[in-house]
Specification:
2 domains, Arc Repressor Mutant, subunit A, Muramoyl-pentapeptide Carboxypeptidase, domain 2, alpha+beta, 241 residues, four-stranded antiparallel beta sheet, single chain, 12% strand
Length: 241
């Protein structure tokens, strides 16, 4: 029970920080600027009022995802007036932020990958996807009544909600239309080198999508397929629905 309570609290905190698409865009913008940005910079980039940008930045800072610094960016020169507050990615104050904070346990993942490698490819894929689906259902259940409402979403809006939840967990995900279907693109894999060493771990990602969508939409989901995977050399991961 304590573990479930801690998990729910963690997911709720992450959702509070990243559940809003605008806030997600703000964080993605800030993390690309090692010297930090101002609320004005964010407002111009995202297309919102500076006060709205400041609200999102302060939310991210309160959650520990950004730090606040006083002063101007290096090389900005001397200017009159009080320096604006600058928001810097908390995960990396000394170099380029190449990745989201990893929220997975590398040791557990490595052990899972090795255990799955002892099974036949088909069995390993099935178990990995089942693990992901169970986790995905728990994510959706924890978020009901907040960012996600089960059974009351179109497939398109549900997939966007899933992408937002995955982004909150380090996947840098977004939804897109392709041909006659929809898919989720992950620009970052929080499983890192473990997935490269054990590509079957990618089935966990696919299972998470299935688990969340199963809680968010009514009826049969149909096939959910991993089209592209960074673990096998692609530039991004793509899961089609």
């Amino acid at each position: 029970m304590a573990t479930n309570t801690a998990f729910t609290a963690t997911v709720s905190a992450i959702t509070d920080a990243f559940g809003d698409p605008t806030r997600r865009s703000v964080y993605l913008f800030v993390r690309e600027h090692v010297d930090g940005v101002t609320a004005t910079d964010v407002a111009q980039q995202v297309g919102v009022h500076p006060n709205v940008a400041r609200h999102h930045l302060d939310k991210l800072a309160a959650g520990g995802y950004l730090t606040v610094q006083a002063g101007r960016a290096p090389g900005a020169g001397e200017r009159a007036g009080r320096p604006s507050k600058r928001y810097v990615p908390a995960a990396n104050s000394g170099g380029p932020l190449a990745e989201f904070p990893v929220r997975s346990d590398d040791l557990v993942l490595s052990l899972l990958g090795r255990a799955l490698s002892k099974l036949s490819p088909g069995e390993a894929q099935t178990i990995a996807e089942q693990v992901g689906a169970e986790y995905g259902r728990a994510m959706a259940a924890s978020l009901q009544g907040n960012a996600l409402d089960a059974g009351h979403r179109s497939m398109r809006s549900a997939i966007q909600a899933v992408a937002d939840a995955l982004t909150a967990h380090g996947f840098a995900a977004h939804a897109e239309s392709r041909h006659d279907g929809l898919r989720i693109i992950n620009d970052h894999c929080p499983f890192g080198d473990v997935a490269v060493e054990h590509p079957v771990i990618c089935a966990v990602d696919r299972g998470m999508v299935r688990g969340m969508l199963g809680e968010l939409v009514e009826g049969q989901l149909g096939d959910i397929v991993t089209e592209e995977s960074r673990a096998t050399g692609a530039t991004f991961c793509a899961t089609s629905v």
